[in-house]
Design a protein that fits this description.
With 153 residues, this protein is α/β, with parallel strands linked by helices. It has 2 domains: 63 residues, Roll (2,3-Dihydroxybiphenyl 1,2-Dioxygenase, domain 1); 67 residues, 2,3-Dihydroxybiphenyl 1,2-Dioxygenase, domain 1 (Roll). Helix content is 17%, strand content 31%. The protein contains 2 helices and 8 strands; from the N terminus they run βαββββαβββ.
């Protein structure tokens, strides 16, 4: 039996603080194709549960000001896996149309000599995100040496 008596363990959902729920809803729905599974619209308590195929993946909470601080403890980045590099490139096209900021130019591998890779970008609040595929990235294009691409950006 595993630690704490659990038999299985997987990530449930990730809660993200945002400054403008409507703006973030539009972004996350356009990029990830999320459905709104539940939503709170009361002033001072706005939130949305987002997911796909009846599985909640992200909760957005409108309760922040400013932008994501990469120099503070907490979330480093939120990553989503897709099946193919073509899906990653399709998401990249959507993101470019939205004017999203990218950490690297296009699809990059997770490290030297690796074939998994993806795109690294930010949401409207500066939260760092990643969409990747387990194979199909060009290992010659690794933007970092000596550390995983997803670690220091």
């Amino acid at each position: 039996m595993d630690m704490a008596g659990t038999k299985t363990l997987q990530t449930g959902h990730v809660g993200v603080n945002v400054t403008d729920l409507e703006r973030s809803l539009a972004f996350y729905r356009a990029v990830f194709g999320f459905d709104v599974m539940a939503e709170g619209k009361e002033d001072g308590r706005r939130w949305a549960f987002l997911g796909r195929d009846d599985r909640m993946l992200v909760a957005l909470w409108q309760q922040s000001a400013g932008s994501f601080a990469t120099d503070r403890p907490g979330l480093h980045h939120l990553s989503f896996q897709v099946e193919t590099i073509e899906e990653v490139k399709a998401a990249e096209d959507v993101l470019r149309g939205l004017g999203a900021g990218f950490a690297y130019d296009g699809v990059v591998p997770h490290g030297e000599h690796g074939t998994s890779g993806g795109i690294f970008f930010t949401d409207p609040d500066g939260i760092r995100l990643e969409i990747y595929a387990p194979t199909g990235a060009d290992p010659a294009d690794a933007p970092t040496t000596g550390a995983p691409t997803c670690g220091f950006f």
